[in-house]
Amino acid sequence: MVNRVMITQVWDDFAQGSLIILQGSLALLRDSLAVVGLLAALLLGYVIHNDGARQQALAFWPFQQDGEIANAAEVESLAEAVREPALKATSLLGLEDAPSSESPTLSLNKEQEAVAKYLAKRYRINKAATDILVEAAWNAGKETALDPLLILAVTAIESRFNPFAESSMGAQGLMQVMSRVHQDKLADFGGKQAALNPVTNIKVGALVLKDCVKRGGSLEAGLKLYLGAVIANEGSYLERVNNEHERLKLVAKGKAPVIQTPLPVAQPSREPKPEPLDQLAALG
């Protein structure tokens, strides 16, 4: 009887452990697929927007007869078939205004390049995608008079650079924007669904942070307001943001801190702001 109980307990423990491992593997697979999808959308958007790249891609189309290149009518027909979904993908990524004759490769300065490399390594994200986010942070910094490194530090703590992060209370995207509260800010970018656009999320998140700093009267008070109401772990949040901000400052100066081990794959960093909606709405 004792042996049967022990066997049952061991089996239960094994089953629970296997389930935990499976859940972790599925979560990793989900995040990996998200990154792959982002890169695929970037590549597809480039091919569609760039006539030369589109012609080269069609030249290697595997269904050509005897190695012949499709005629102009076939080229245009295939281009039209994929143009609409590609434009939707590039719109989601904020690249719809990219000139068709130029490569989407960004030209970062030395400071930005160092920051992008650091973030890509520390948070295990693709370098090309990181370049886009770094440029977006710099642009948002110019528009809001905020330090772009601070914007990136907040992004790191809020979502660990997971553009599809969403909390149980509805905080979404890189900077965990509350889309139902900040509909006014998102309206200019297409509405609430734009919160999952990485570039738009950084722009709107920076605007919210700017309002918080203005209301609070200081950076520290502004970060507390951005976090939400005064809660038990606010000190931890401020410390993590400040520490990452200081690391990014060193990186930008060419004094990158030693990275012991990469941080885990992007996951929402915390539960969303518990601040009442009417108080948050005042930020708009």
Automatic annotation (TrEMBL):
Family annotation (InterPro entries): Lysozyme-like_dom_sf, Transglycosylase_SLT_dom_1
Alphabetized UniProt keyword annotations: Membrane, Transmembrane, Transmembrane helix
Pfam families: SLT (PF01464)
Domain of life: Bacteria
Coiled coil stretches, renumbered: none
Record domain Transglycosylase SLT: where: 140-218
SUPFAM superfamilies hit by this protein: Lysozyme-like
Protein's name according to its UniProt entry: Transglycosylase SLT domain-containing protein
Organism expressing this protein natively: Parvibium lacunae
Lineage: Bacteria, Pseudomonadati, Pseudomonadota, Betaproteobacteria, Burkholderiales
